[in-house]
């Protein structure tokens, strides 16, 4: 009789599979990621894999859903908060989102790397769609609240929500370029790049919402300092 | 001795290949489009195909380049015009672009259909990148001109250009939904959808450029009437 040691719980095994698949996707295009490769990276048996997933496409979908769920958790929390001032509520949304992103900077850097693998285009489009599907209702609700209270003046709720999300999506490639500059020794330029990007996003957000500049506030730029610290590995 | 009749010129043959490949892409994902299928649809020989292209990937790239070149021609023409007023210049850019799009509505509808084929995601991303690469310098130049003359007040030239192009990219799915409504008998709703979309884009453009509402003007909404005419097939 074989005694299996260190046997994982089903939940831990599923997480190990998703972690392994996500990791593999950051170093190779999806078409090269096999069930055998995932199983080896996760340290589980093929039987264990097929207990949770019916195919590699099935894992792909689960990886995408998990990334999208993670990205939206902060926004949902801020929507539930009780501020009655729409400006404070929107600022809180941006600050919570920034804090979540900073504490998951390693995972976001991995997604940016993933996006650069040629064959991963369908995956990235799916991730964008899943993320939009979750984030659009939140941003629309925040805008709608501000409109209903005659605080925001937007041209078109739907288009404005699309554009606000588009601004946010382009944030991290800039932050990671800033980190590369700092790691290469030019911390001052990296710092200026982050400062300008944060200010630009704050300015565009207020303009799109029909507010005075600096009404809605982004997270303080100093929060991003760890990104430029060569001694600080991304989590 | 075999006499070949109706022999195409090399240029005509190349165009026939690109036309056939573009047509096939509107009804099936790229992975199902074969050299044999393109050759049959273009009415040429395999030898004729390989005279111009080394592989199906090679045709794909040429199809994308041609679509992107077409889409940018109107913008380039308006950049070359002599208006010294940045507002008139930007309006002219939008109006020229709208005219080009309307006279190529059939091709644009085909691209929107192409985008809905699952396997075409990499192609669509490539098309978006190629189109951005051509359009961004034009829009940045138009914005830069308006800033230099202290007429436009934008938050950030690069981000603003990205957002202005993003607004335009989302235009046609709305127009085609409006046409479907009209073809189904509800012309009034289709007309309202187009009117609201054009007004929203005009409003957002002026806001992003830091102008009064209705300073920069989009093409007159009446220009879009043919889209709603059931008797008028898309070209």
UniProtKB/TrEMBL annotation, chains A, B:
GO molecular function, one term: transcription cis-regulatory region binding
Entry annotated with the keyword DNA-binding: yes
Any Pfam family matching the protein: TetR_N
Gene3D superfamilies: Tetracycline Repressor, domain 2
InterPro entries given in the database record: Homeodomain-like_sf, HTH-type_TetR-like_transc_reg, HTH_TetR
Keyword terms, alphabetized: DNA-binding, Transcription, Transcription regulation
DNA-binding region (UniProt annotation): 34-53
Domain HTH tetR-type: 11-71
Top-level taxon of the source organism: Bacteria
Identification of the protein by name: Transcriptional regulator, TetR family
Organism: Roseicitreum antarcticum
């Amino acid at each position: 009789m074989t005694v299996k040691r260190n046997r994982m719980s089903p939940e831990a095994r599923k997480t190990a599979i998703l972690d392994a698949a996500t990791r593999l996707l950051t170093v190779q295009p999806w078409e090269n990621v096999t069930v055998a490769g995932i199983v080896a990276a996760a340290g589980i048996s093929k039987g264990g894999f097929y207990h949770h997933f019916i195919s590699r496409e099935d894992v792909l979908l689960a990886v995408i859903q998990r990334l999208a769920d993670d990205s939206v958790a902060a926004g949902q929390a801020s929507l539930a908060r009780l501020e009655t001032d729409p400006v404070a509520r929107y600022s809180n949304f941006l600050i919570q989102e920034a804090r979540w992103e900073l504490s998951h900077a390693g995972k976001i850097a991995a997604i940016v790397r993933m996006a650069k693998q040629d064959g991963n285009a369908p995956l990235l489009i799916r991730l964008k769609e899943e993320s939009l599907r979750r984030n659009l209702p939140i941003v629309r609700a925040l805008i709608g609240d501000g409109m209903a209270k005659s605080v925001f003046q937007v041209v078109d709720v739907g288009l404005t929500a699309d554009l606000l999300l588009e601004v946010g999506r382009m944030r991290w490639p800039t932050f990671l370029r800033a980190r590369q500059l700092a790691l290469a020794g030019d911390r001052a330029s990296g710092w200026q790049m982050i400062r300008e990007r944060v200010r630009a996003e704050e300015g565009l957000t207020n303009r799109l919402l029909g507010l005075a500049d600096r009404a809605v506030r982004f997270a303080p730029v100093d929060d991003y300092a760890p990104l430029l610290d060569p001694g600080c590995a991304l989590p």
